[in-house]
């Protein structure tokens, strides 16, 4: 994930910003209503990327990956619409408590940019994605960097069209969605009124979009490491932040670990899950890596 990559991450202030004032208000609606569900995973299960993860001789990468992690951020669905049979195979290969969090295909978000021609594509995408059944987590839409507030009407129409049986998270990257207080409030209100989560992206070169505004009971977080020692301290800060949000009412933690070079993502995930289990009292499985009895990342 190259978005927000910088050459000298040690020069970046990675301090997590203060919460938006309305985040606590949004979370308060859910306080005391059930347990918090926690899913932590990587962005892909490709052996070429995750070289430190798969034991020699692993024949089925997804089957092994899903024996170690409880979810995957399914980026592959951004590039094309897979046939229904492929989703059924993914479903059958994974444990009963495993979840997929697929990205909406780029034909909807980047090529057609939510215009009229995007909707037949979206319908096709949802029809096949539904084959994940009970293993389907939140679907997420990531808009292009240059998709700004001038496209507000398209966003409203998309939200109104979206079938409510599918959970949705939306990611906006153009700075004008957050720099203009009036625009930001209208966007947050739209998401909150329609139970859509506001995706958070933590990456080195775009600290300006760390809006820290949750709009429902879900924290959908895409964390991008910089292949640098600061990756670990940043994750420690997220453990503290999620613990705070949990106390305020957060019910769904969906946290996905990326790196600019993905091969070490499982190592970061292990550290994060260990700290999360200790702080939140959760019992997520600690994934095995090839470095369990050898060197660490840095």
From TrEMBL:
- Do you know which SUPFAM superfamilies this protein is assigned to? TM1631-like
Top-rank taxon: Bacteria
Matching entries from Pfam families are given as:
DUF72
Membrane spanning stretches? none
The record's section on InterPro entries has:
DUF72, UPF0759_sf
Q: What is this protein called?
A: DUF72 domain-containing protein
Q: Which organism is it from?
A: Costertonia aggregata
